[in-house]
Amino acid sequence: MKRYIDLIQQTFEFPTREFGVDAQNNLQFNNVPLMDVIKRYGTPLRISYLPKIGEHIEHSRVLFKNAMKKYNYKGNYTYCYCTKSSHFKFILDTALKHNIHLETSSAFDIPLIETLYEEGKVSKDTYIICNGHKMPQYLKNITNLLNQGFVNCTPILDNLDEIDHYLEHVNADNVNIGIRIATDEEPTFSFYTSRLGIRYKDVDDLYLKKIKPDERFKLKMLHFFINSGIKDTAYYWSELTRFMFKYCEMKRICPELDSIDIGGGMPIQTSVVYNFDYQAMVDEIIENIQWICHKNNVPVPNIFTEFGSYTVGESGAILYKIIDQKQQNDRELWYMIDGSFITQLPDAWGIGQKYIMLPINNWDAPYTKVNLGGLTCDSADYYNTESHSEDLYMPIIDDNDPSDEQYIGFFHTGAYQESLGGYGGIQHCLIPAPKHVLIDRDDNGNLTTELFAEEQTEESMLKILGYRAQRNSPEPLQDTSSKMHFHEQTKDN
Known about the structure:
Layout: H1 4-11, E1 19-21, E2 27-29, E3 32-33, H2 34-41, E4 45-49, H3 51-70, E5 77-82, H4 89-96, E6 101-104, H5 109-118, E7 128-130, H6 136-147, E8 153-157, H7 162-169, E9 175-180, H8 200-211, E10 217-223, H9 234-253, E11 259-261, H10 278-295, E12 302-307, H11 309-312, E13 316-327, E14 333-337, H12 341-344, H13 346-350, E15 356-359, E16 367-369, E17 371-373, E18 382-383, E19 393-395, E20 407-411, H14 417-420, E21 435-441, E22 447-453, H15 458-464
Parallel strand pairs: 4-21, 5-6, 5-12, 6-7, 7-8, 8-9, 9-10, 10-11, 11-12, 14-17
Antiparallel strand pairs: 1-2, 2-3, 4-13, 13-14, 13-20, 15-20, 16-19, 17-18, 21-22
Helix pairs in contact: 3-10, 9-10
């Protein structure tokens, strides 16, 4: 019977740049011996391979540098990191070593910025691109940054009234403003136009009536983002073209406008089968932007990106042990993991996101078709397909051999999963957050590991649920019923 490694090698070009198998038939991830990590820390285990973050930042810079050189593009490129993809300090610390800038999406991003500033990791010249719908606290926090002299803090207006707050409360002499334009959604989406941003027809009036009259405020940036991300599709090119024609139109009435933010959405690898041509895609973006600008006799804009998943996604992985196998009928064999997809990989069940799934050990064993089941009692807690295949295959486990242990890994899980899963909080069926280990390399290239967080304890969960916490004394609610008047309506007979 064929071995699992035979299946992989006949299906893919394997080994790859990231994955290989050692002499003991164990998987390596970026040359990290995963079985050694498991032996030290156990499972379930979330790992973050930090060098991958810098690798992707520098790769993006090379892509845009090459494209701009190819087309003699005169604008500049600025790399921003989308903080909502992962807010962890070790992520920001690693990314900021590569001289990046930041994009925010909520009020509580701003204290992170201020903390990083106090530590000397960002400066008042760092670009802070403030996106999203702004609740009062978010508006207040952005205003505080502007008034503290963060000269490149750029609020991106998401609705027509947002500018009113800055006009009233900002006391800085010069404020850069951006406008997010509401794009049309993909044809398959439930809605025609994005709920985020400002309609094309309203952009001119917003600038002429509210921004231009106040000399302190300068419209410097137009923001573009579509949910599908950067893809070589007719939809993407159509929306980008429409956006660039609007930029050219606005440039004529607003000379200080000089930048565009083309958002995030650079794809990451979700299968061992992967052939996305990053350079060709960036070349095409630069060529299209330049062609439209030249056609309209407008200087090309500076380009900002705010890559989130692309920055951190491929740095993450989560490792599990197969704790049981269950033959539920003639065709369905279930391997049960010591964790949960719902709580630890919520995109896998919530939006059908696929990741690279590979066994950690036993690559020399024969294989079989399986379904993977999580620990919760929810029927949706499973994983049974891969992005390249309708079927899922794993090494066969010998139930009669207690030493025959099987471990598996899901890779490129570094974006969004911790926050969506409620890291350190209460999760479905009280499944604890797994242990989290950081993997890095020292100045000599040697691997290092650091335990970032222990597995969540029952004590911490009981405290969150109120079983160990000291509660406040109940307070009487003021009775206002005597002051209320009820009028009974009668009908004429």
